Amino acid sequence: MLEIIDLDKKIEKDEYHTVILQLQHKLGELQRQARELKLPVIIVFEGLEAAGKGTLINDLILPMDPRVFNVYATYAPNEEERRRPFLWRFWIKTPARGRIAIFDRSWYRRVLNDRVDGKVRRKRLNNIYEEINYFEEQLADDGNVIIKFFLHISKEEQKKRFKRLEENPSTSWRVTKEDWKHYQQYERYLKAADQMIEKTDSSYAPWTIIEAHDRRYAIVKILKTVIRALQESIDSKQRKEEEKHRPLVMEECSITSQVSSLRTSILDKIDLSKAMEKAEYKVKLKQYQDRIRELEHELYIRRVPVIIVYEGWDAAGKGGNIRRITENLDPRGYGVVPTAAPNDIEKAHHYLWRFWKEIPKAGHITIFDRSWYGRVLVERIEGFCSVEEWKRAYKEVNEMEEHLHSFGAVIVKFWMHIDKEEQLRRFKEREEQPHKQWKITDEDWRNREKWEPYKRAVEDMLFKTSTSYAPWTIVESNSKLFARIKTLETVIKAIENKLKHLG
């Protein structure tokens, strides 16, 4: 496709001066509107070396308020970034609502430079395209405006620009051996770009090819594209805001909940009478804590990340359980992330953003005391997100966990299960013991009153997000001793299976 693009397109100087000020003023106006409407915007610049990305980005941001955008230059990943899933370093740079993130090269480096340089196996390519599409779709569904440019020049033009840069002492450093190597691989690079565009061009994140021989033509096309995308998104957001104020004709149909009630209960089948004698508990606790300490060291040597997720009823014993896993570990090799209600900064981003920031690097363990599943539990039940958002979340968390699995992470997820009577007993115990009173809040009692809606939400979560790569383990937690040993045993088994598979 790129081979047939007409690269001779240009705009004469008089015509350029006629339209450029109008476009710049319009862009400045739309950028302010987007900020007021809290629209997050992502603009991606990809293209051939020497196509003018830096110059055109500078032309683009000229009419913008510098307080509301960030420009990120993407280079080969450093040591810290190599030890994370490849999308991690981009997730943490996604913009807050009302801000603009501009990427001078992006996540597409993986299927362009890295592919041409032979750093990506061919059989892995389809997975990478899939992960990129998941990433962009999740951001678009959350309201991000995604605009992607591919800057195209001919091989002859690229050579001419390299030589011009080399002849100037102040710019010669910008042309590297790798640039000339890619020049020699021009046809391979173009083929890779063709496939990239074909695999990742979508309605929610479309590609625009920029004929970049003529700077004036290129910037006018870029400005027009950004203006059109912003205008369409602003109009759409305003329509949605107006629709919010219209009276609802009827509430959400209850057929779904009726059908759910007919499904066999997962939780009702759990045998909560399982228990363990203290003597057996002490022996196994020592044995398993010694073993997990050994595995922690091996995980570090083999560069395997481990993610442990705890969800469960209030007072189900998550905290005590986590302590038994960590108390014999080297504190330099693990972290515990307690998840509370999101703060204002976290609310301004995609709900997964705050969890991506905490994903462990290869060789480390991260334990989430509550997690991204809050979207389909507390946020669903308490109405902190829309029905559309929590229904979409099952697919989103499955995609995220699949990406983590593809990176090599061990993912262990626990639902700590107790019955309603045991929860009441523990609540009263906390109220009666001064050193435990801080553990019980009015919110705990309010949540208890919604036991049945929460139970339905939990069963939906278990049913829809237990996968081969990230299965749920339901832990019978009426007996704290039994629960602690079961979780330790489950974590150890998952890690041992992973290490055995690595050989």
Characterize the structure shown.
The protein has 503 residues and is of the alpha/beta class. It has two domains: 2-239, 3-Layer(aba) Sandwich (Rossmann fold), CATH 3.40.50; 271-502, Rossmann fold, CATH 3.40.50.300. The chain has 21 helices and ten strands. The chain has helices spanning 13-36, 53-61, 79-82, 88-91, 113-116, 122-141, 155-167, 177-184, 186-200, 215-244, 255-262, 278-302, 318-326, 344-347, 353-356, 378-382, 387-407, 420-432, 442-449, 451-465, 480-502; strands spanning 41-47, 69-73, 100-104, 145-152, 207-211, 306-312, 334-338, 365-369, 410-417, 472-476. The strands form two sheets. Strands 2-3-1-4-5 form a five-stranded parallel beta sheet, with helices on both faces. It has a five-stranded parallel beta sheet with strand order 7-8-6-9-10, with helices on both faces. The model is unreliable at 248-262 (pLDDT under 50).
**Assigned CATH superfamily of the largest domain:** P-loop containing nucleotide triphosphate hydrolases
CATH domain class of the largest domain? Alpha Beta
Q: What is the CATH topology of the largest domain?
A: Rossmann fold
Average pLDDT works out at 93
Global structural class: alpha/beta
**Unreliably modeled segments:** 248-262
Alpha plus pi helix count? 21
